[in-house]
Amino acid sequence: MAISFTLPTIQNWSCHNCGGCCRQHAIEVTEEERQRILSQDWTANDGTPTGDSLFERHAGPPWAKRYRLAHQADGACVFLNEQGLCRIHAKFGEAAKPLACRIYPYAFHPAGKQVTVSLRFSCPSVVVNRGRSMKQNADEIKQLARAVVPEGHERMPPPALSNRERVDWSDLLRINDAIDATMAPTDVPITIKLQRALFWLNLIEQSRFDKLSGARLTEFLDIIQQAADEDIQPMADGRWPMAEIPTSLGGVQFRLLTAQYARKDTAADLSSGWRGRWKLFRAATKFARGRGNVPALQPIFREVPFESLDQPFGLPTESEELWTRYFRVKVQGLHFCGPAYYGVPLVEGFQSLALIFPATLWIARWIAASQNRTQLTAEDVSQALTISDHHHGYSPIFGSFGFRRRVRTLVQMGEIPKLIQWYAQ
Ligand code: SF4
Hints:
Blueprint: E1 4-6, H1 20-24, E2 28-29, H2 31-38, E3 55-59, E4 66-69, H3 87-92, H4 99-103, E5 106-111, E6 114-119, H5 124-127, H6 138-148, H7 169-183, H8 190-206, H9 214-231, H10 248-262, H11 267-270, H12 273-289, H13 319-332, H14 346-370, H15 378-391, H16 401-412, H17 415-422
Parallel strand pairs: 1-6
Antiparallel strand pairs: 2-4, 3-4, 5-6
């Protein structure tokens, strides 16, 4: 099958064997992969469990059981060795690993006749843009795509544009290109680019598209993008407008949303049962109240007062490049709506994606405050993004009715632009 690709050429990546993904992800295996791993005859001499103990059953009825790779006591994959390397890879080569491990951190999404490629920023090498260019990786990407992209992908319908409007692939990609164009300039702060994109996407959400297509849509996009530039621009002295304070109701919704991003869902956490769920419920209550100390959701965090995270921590200038690259890779790769993001429409998907910015900066502040610092470093922001992007589009809770309603509430209250400005100061 010949597949034509859109590659995120602004991004570099090679694996640097940090073992991070093998500690974070629960890897589901197909029956074929399970049988292949069983036939590899792992013994105690290899440092692994044996036979069926290599797997955990995690879902499915008795006639269609689903399995994932078992994990060690600290949550790491059973095949991760002391040097942080995969034992299957070391003994039988890359191709012998489960497909989910081989694909990571790539993500493939249908885009009409093409397939777009995106990357997961839960991988530290993606975040720091370290490794070979996407052009150099193109052969490997094509090989992986052949294994995961289904036949007939070009017939898959485009994501909805909004809750009431659908357009065809060419118009949807036209609008997506316009979002990318808003996020591209390197001389405009990321906070302004996000607010401008949200501004004109709000107009898209209110428009009808039955007579707005092709060249007329391009003209309409030019007009609303210009309106956004004029509405959100620097003041006479060249500075950007000051941050407005989010409302207390907006603050509650935002903290609850951020708590979901700050969680750690390793295989060990997923199987922690009622005790784990009770701990999460208690943590959610504290996040809703927003008083006292923030409960440490992962070992990297220390309990610090909620109010200490609402002081200005600054935004390191180096982070501007990371944020521009992050949003452009996600937008170009359609990694924020449709099948890549719980089937949500494009406008809603971008509103959710924009919220990852203040949520990540809140987590970055928590990392800094846990080390008794009151200023963010670029490393804090990078580390926080590996935590938040781990969930984005992958943890089922983010596609739930409750989570989507929370995003909707923040949109209707006009809180997202305020949160973006507030946590960037
Ligand atoms: S997290 Fe990234 S760099 Fe680390 S082992 Fe996984 S793919 Fe490689």
